Amino acid sequence: MRKITAIVSAVLVLLAISVVSPVFANPGATVTVHVIGPDGTELKGATVKLVSNATVYTAETNSTGYAVFTDVTNDTYAVALVSPYYAFTYLDASNSSITEFSVTLNMTTMNKANVTTPGIELDFNATVYGIVFKITSPETLYGSTKVTLTFPKEHYKFPYRYIFDKITYDTTEIKENEVTIDLAVSSYDVEVTYIKGFYFKLEDWMVPILAVIAFVILIGVLIALTRAGEIIREERRYKYISE
């Protein structure tokens, strides 16, 4: 009986520990990101993201340009300013023994990539440490890390189709639609060229409009046929009366 009581007591203790331990578990890390704009001023209301393969944290900077993230899971993160500018760096916050991390996105000291697509605005992907960010050209990207830029092979904007031709960055020209630049080393001027041609592609917004037009035409044809039948009958009736 004493053995059974001891076993039950031990089980209860283990259950109590399993329930209570999360309450007293160490909280996640605190990450502070300081954002300084291209003109040297601290940005208020800027949107900053911490992104890993599993988690996305979002915060806005306060009046002194600081965005504070609390209870952050220990991991490696792409640190991204996504509004009103784009700036990227990397944070290794995987050490659970460290509870506070700080990052500065200072666009006055960061290198930058001026991305242009002459004659067209389109979405492209910027990949930082495996994390993909969608951006619309033309845009300037600031950073202190490698960034892979991927552009669509084709783009449609009624009534044109734009076919990818080449990427020119500094003095280098490539025919692939993807390029990796290292903003930790240098700044870049990235120009992406597309060949423009006429091409009709039924866009989603056109479907209801075309349906309405087809309906109106059909109604018009039916009205015309009905009226034509009435005219023919009237002519026959008039002819019959005349005879």
Describe this structure in words.
The chain is of the alpha+beta class. It has two domains: 84 residues, no CATH class; 101 residues, Sandwich (Immunoglobulin-like), CATH 2.60.40. The chain contains two helices and 17 strands. It starts with a helix and ends with a helix. About 7% of the residues have low confidence.
Radius of gyration: 32 Å
- CATH class of the largest domain, named Mainly Beta
Structural class: alpha+beta
If you average the pLDDT, what whole number results?
Answer: 87
Strand element count: 17
Question: Regions with pLDDT < 50 over 5+ consecutive residues?
Answer: 10-25
Q: Looking at the structure, what is the overall shape?
A: elongated
Note the quaternary state here.
Answer: single chain
Helical content stands at: 10-25%
**The number of domains:** 2
CATH architecture of the largest domain: Sandwich
Element order: H for helix, E for strand: HEEEEEEEEEEEEEEEEEH
Biggest β-sheet, characterized? Answer: 10 strands, mixed
Q: What proportion of the residues form beta strands (DSSP E)? A: 35-45%
Terminal CA distance reads 124 Å
Give the topology.
Blueprint: H1 2-20, E1 29-36, E2 47-51, E3 56-60, E4 66-72, E5 76-83, E6 86-92, E7 100-106, E8 111-116, E9 123-128, E10 131-136, E11 139-143, E12 146-150, E13 154-157, E14 160-169, E15 172-174, E16 178-182, E17 188-198, H2 206-242
Parallel strand pairs: 1-7, 6-11, 8-17
Antiparallel strand pairs: 1-4, 2-3, 2-5, 5-6, 8-11, 9-10, 9-12, 12-16, 13-14, 14-15, 14-17
Quickly list its features.
243 residues, alpha+beta, Immunoglobulin-like, 2 domains, ten-stranded mixed beta sheet, four-stranded antiparallel beta sheet, 17 strands, 23% helix, 44% strand
